[in-house]
Design goal:
The chain is built from 18 helices and 16 strands. It is of the alpha/beta class.
Length: 451
């Protein structure tokens, strides 16, 4: 039993108060007694009480009115009504109004002992659950990023490490994996947390507009520039600038961006003044910038400026152990937003969600949960609520393209017939020359048998 639980006794009979408080103290409770309604309300306002033993019939303010005030002031306190046998109907009404239970005078000490023990154990369980949820939250959440998978735990650790520095960070990952959330987490845990966080999607703006957005412009710099405007770098001074879709910027803008990163100064479009900036840059992309460098569409010097620290966000299909955790988070989020009471996923729904490949990643999962909560009342998200429930989910590692399927089939046939080209070609209904060409095109090789 939880020791030192706090019990408030409210009764207008002094002898009852003395007897009860003495007994409660002997039973290891912290007990105090008051003799009327106003004193009880004051005591509840001043201190936290686990249990209130409340007499139903008192002169002036009766127990029903006191109960109403307690429910408003301290809804976490459990109220037990003490009543004479003749007033049991009133005690029943009190339970309807929020009392936990009632006990008839003269009090049965054994009954009260069992009642208090049950209440205190229940409250202790609630407290333990709250603490457990808090520990789980601390373990599996970092800012608004959620994940218990090993890959996400590594991301959390990287965020913790780089947050303490001023290093430029490049975040990579598919669309919908949460790159901006990681950027915000880095900023909010850094010494710059009290400065601005400015986010810009480079892919959403045409090149000429992106330049003016990033670097600002002077009045008259171009047609329609009727006033001076600060760019995103200036707006982020003292804080963090997040550039999403950095792989989409043009070569011209790449050169200007590189100069700003090297010199920590900029000049607005149409201006001549040099402006110093103090900005931490975090960039993100869903593209392969290494391939873009080789193709000549992304400058290598800019890439190395951006890629001081790299954080990769895995796609959801590679961290499926996070799906149920993310679903629970979004269920709670949209329950609050739409005033619904969903509390679980149907088993078949969760099974399909675990099989599904999630091309839209966490963003798609959030949309699926939001849609399910909008269209039904709960309390369970069912298989039929999932928009992809009638789509056969691809099996992991299953060939998705015709080329992959052809390669797999030819390789199996060659292996089955010990790489007998003539026989394999005949069974595939093609000539040997065509089979040789396909073997070369698909990069198939005969592996030696183990000795």
């Amino acid at each position: 039993m939880k020791e030192n639980a706090r019990v408030l006794v409210v009764d207008d009979e002094p002898m009852v108060c003395v007897a009860l408080t003495n007994w409660l103290q002997e039973e290891n409770y912290l007990a105090r007694a008051v003799h009327d309604g106003p004193q009880a309300i004051a005591a509840v306002r001043e201190e936290t009480w686990d249990v209130v033993l409340l007499d139903l019939r008192m002169p002036g303010m009766d127990g029903m009115e006191v109960l109403k005030h307690i429910r408003e002031i301290a809804p976490q306190s459990v109220v037990i009504i003490m009543t004479a046998y003749a007033s049991i109907p009133g005690a029943v009404q009190a339970m309807k109004d929020g009392a936990y239970d009632y006990i008839v005078k003269p009090l049965d000490v054994d009954q009260l002992t069992r009642m208090l023990k049950r209440i205190v154990e229940h409250q202790q369980l609630i407290t333990e659950n709250i603490l457990l949820r808090k520990r789980l939250t601390e373990q599996y959440e970092f800012g608004d990023i959620i994940g218990k998978s090993g890959a996400m735990q590594q991301v959390f650790e990287m965020v913790r490490v780089v947050s303490e520095t001023n290093a430029t960070v490049l975040i990579t990952g598919e669309t919908g994996t949460g790159k901006e959330l990681v950027a915000r987490a880095i900023h909010s845990n850094s010494p710059r947390r009290y400065g601005p966080f400015v986010a810009t999607s480079c892919g959403a703006l045409p090149d000429t507009l992106l330049e003016s957005e990033l670097f600002g412009y002077e009045k008259g710099a171009f047609t329609g520039a009727d006033r001076m405007k600060k760019g995103r770098f200036e707006l982020a001074h003292g804080g963090t600038l997040f550039l999403d879709e950095i792989g989409d910027i043009s070569m011209k803008t790449q050169i200007k961006l590189l100069r700003v990163l090297q010199e920590r100064t900029l000049t607005r479009l149409g201006g001549t003044d040099t402006i110093e900036i103090d900005v931490r840059l975090i960039a993100a992309t869903n593209q392969d910038l290494t391939a873009a460098m080789k193709a000549g569409s992304f400058r290598s010097d800019l890439y190395y400026r951006l890629n001081v620290v790299s954080i990769h966000l895995p796609p959801l299909r590679e961290r499926k152990e996070d799906i149920s955790l993310l679903a629970a988070h979004f269920i709670n989020k949209y329950n609050i937003e739409f005033n619904k009471k969903f509390d679980r996923l149907e088993r078949k729904a969760l099974e399909l969600m675990m099989e599904y490949q999630w091309p839209g990643n966490v963003r798609e999962l959030e949309n699926v949960i939001e849609r399910a909560i909008v269209i039904d009342q709960g309390p369970e998200i069912k298989l039929r609520h999932l928009p992809f429930c009638n789509i056969e989910a691809p099996i992991a590692d299953e060939p998705q393209s015709l080329d992959e399927l052809e390669k797999l089939h030819i390789e199996k046939m060659l292996t089955r017939h010990n790489w007998n080209i003539a026989k394999t070609a005949r069974l595939l209904n093609i000539d040997r020359t065509t089979l040789h060409k396909k073997i070369k095109k698909l990069g198939l090789e005969r592996h030696s048998e183990p000795s």
